[in-house]
Structures are given as structure tokens and as C-alpha cells.
Design goal:
By secondary structure, the chain is of the alpha/beta class. It is globular. The longest helix has 14 residues. Helix 8 crosses helix 12. Strands 2-1-3-4-6-5-10 form a seven-stranded mixed sheet, sandwiched between helices. A five-stranded mixed sheet has the order 7-9-8-11-12, sandwiched between helices.
């Protein structure tokens, strides 16, 4: 069982990159522990800035450093980074096109037991609406590492959301990665489940459950929500009877909405959008919450089957 979290994978890549690049600077909002960035702060103290619980300052300082030629990673809980500092992200990062990677840690309902104040169920919608802001939800440590390596090589702003707990390995170190191109885990003529982030392992298991019921379902790991890999979505839509999306987000403005927009414009197809409810989400561990709302593997499989067969 994998014990390496996506946030730890981020730290590992930054530790290696900073060894030969003094322009890499990491900022935290009293979140170095939650972000697994303590090793970076200890090894590269001159390339680390702690701003305290001040997310708006975090983003503006990060943008200022980027304007001076630094490659900046600003880490903070996704729930606060995507809301409390939204204006700073909009003006100082997106509008100004500064070279900042916004790292939203403990995304979705990772802080499940702490309730809705710590949930980030609207961050995809909020950040994707900003011009020139890319949005990524990697599914496992290997994809996270490849994504961070790619983002460190370019100079455009991006938002990366990672979960708190260790995700099951989907890939390995030989992953063939291309920025802004989704990963096709499997293909199926009956249904295709398009998932992102922590939902990808659940979607993969759901496909296995459906196979036992005689339903052939494919799975797309859509880690790149903006820009969305529309080519992969449309290819799946032409091949499958049903497209389903699975995301740890509000039903509005997230993966389901983005996929629906692509389908309606180019290939109208029945869409089943599986997401968190539009309401007060129950408190609990994320696995408990997913099971409660039919978002675990069994729940996804049951909902896809019902959409296809009516039972």
C-alpha cells in the first residue's frame, strides 16, 4: 500500500530542483507541516518564506517575487487559497501572468472532520474562471511529480490541488507524461468515466465492478481540468453510450460542467455527473463521506449501471 502522499511528492521534486536552481522559492501560510514542506524549509532556509496565517499576503508576496525573476510555489490549504485570497490570485497572479504555482493542499474534503469551513468544493470553478489560470488535480504521486517537473519548466501561472492522504498508485515512475493531455486508463463501449484527483482510483475500481456485471466501462484520468483535454472527451463520447464524470467538487463549475460544455458544443451525449451535493456536506473522514454520497467505487458503479439500464 502506497504511503507517499501527493504533497510529499511535490516536496521531493522541489528539493531536487532547488539544489541547482536558487530562483525556486517556496512560501507557506503557517502550513509547512500540512504541506509536507518542512524538509524544504530546513534544507533551503534562504529559499523559503513563512508568512503566517495570511493567505492574501502569501499570494501577493509570491507574485512580487515572481516579478523579480523567481519561480515561486505558494502553498496553503485549498479551502483558503481559493477563496480568502481570490482577489490577489485574480489580479496579482492571473491578470499579471506571474510565474507562480499555487499549491492547494488538503483539497476537496480532505479536512472532512473539520467541516465545511475547511472543505474546498468550489475551487475548480473559482480558479478555472480566471483568464490564463491553469487548473490541475493529479491523481497519484507519480503523476504529481511529473506535473511539478513540467510546471517548473514553464513560466505561466497554475493552480495545483492535492489531497491530504496517500492516494493509491495508478502509475509508476515510467509514466509517459505530457502536460495538458489526460491519461486513458481503459476504454469501454458502454460507458466512460472521466475522473480527476482522488476520484480516479474509485473510478478505476468502479470499472472493475461494472465489468463483473457485464458492463464495459473505460476510465479517463482528467488531471488537467483547464485546459481540458477535449479531444479525449470527444473521442470517448463517440465510442461510449454514456459519459460519466466523478469529482470531489460542487456539481457546479467543475469537471462535470466542463465536460458537459465540450459535449454540448461538439458531440451531444448523455452525461452522468457525480459530484458532492449542493448543500451542507456532512463531517467525517473522506472515505465515509464518499460512501455516504455514493461517490466511492460501489456508488459510482451503481449509478453508472442505473443510468445505462434503469436498474
Amino acid at each position: 500500500m502506497n504511503k507517499v502522499t501527493n504533497r510529499q511528492a511535490v516536496c521531493d521534486i522541489l528539493m531536487t530542483a532547488a539544489l541547482n536552481d536558487r530562483n525556486i522559492v517556496v512560501l507557506c501560510s503557517d502550513s509547512r507541516g500540512s504541506a509536507s514542506l518542512k524538509p524544504f524549509a530546513e534544507q533551503y532556509p534562504e529559499q523559503f518564506v513563512e508568512v503566517g496565517i495570511a493567505e492574501q499576503n502569501l499570494v501577493s508576496i509570491a507574485a512580487g517575487l515572481a516579478a523579480c525573476g523567481k519561480k515561486v510555489i505558494a502553498a496553503s490549504p485549498a479551502s483558503f487559497l481559493s477563496t480568502r485570497s481570490y482577489e490577489q490570485v485574480k489580479i496579482d497572479v492571473a491578470y499579471s501572468r506571474t510565474n507562480v504555482i499555487l499549491l492547494g493542499i488538503s483539497g476537496g474534503i480532505s479536512y472532512g472532520a473539520l467541516g465545511m469551513t475547511h472543505h474546498s468544493a468550489q475551487d475548480i470553478a473559482a480558479l478555472a474562471a480566471l483568464p490564463d489560470m491553469r487548473v490541475y488535480l493529479p491523481s497519484d504521486r507519480f503523476q504529481t511529480a511529473k506535473l511539478m517537473e513540467a510546471l517548473l519548466r514553464d513560466e505561466k501561472p497554475a493552480y495545483v490541488r492535492v489531497s491530504r492522504s496517500a492516494a493509491e498508485d495508478i502509475y509508476d515512475e515510467n509514466l509517459d507524461f505530457e502536460l495538458d493531455r489526460s491519461h486513458i486508463l481503459s476504454e469501454g463501449p458502454d460507458a466512460t468515466i472521466v475522473a480527476c484527483g482522488e476520484m480516479v482510483p474509485y473510478a478505476a475500481k468502479a470499472a472493475e465492478i461494472l465489468k463483473e456485471a457485464g458492463i464495459r466501462a473505460g476510465v479517463i484520468d482528467m488531471y488537467c481540468l483547464k485546459p481540458l483535454d477535449e479531444k479525449a472527451v470527444l473521442k470517448a463520447a463517440r465510442r461510449s453510450r454514456l459519459i460519466a464524470t466523478a469529482e470531489e467538487h460542487s456539481p457546479y463549475g467543475g469537471l462535470g460542467s466542463l465536460v458537459a460544455q465540450a459535449l454540448s458544443a461538439h458531440c451531444p451525449k448523455k452525461l452522468l455527473a457525480i459530484a458532492l451535493p449542493d448543500g451542507h456536506i456532512i463531517a467525517g473522514e473522506n472515505k465515509e463521506v464518499f460512501a455516504h454520497y455514493g461517490m466511492d467505487a460501489e456508488g459510482i458503479a451503481a449509478r453508472v449501471k442505473q443510468a445505462l439500464t434503469g436498474v
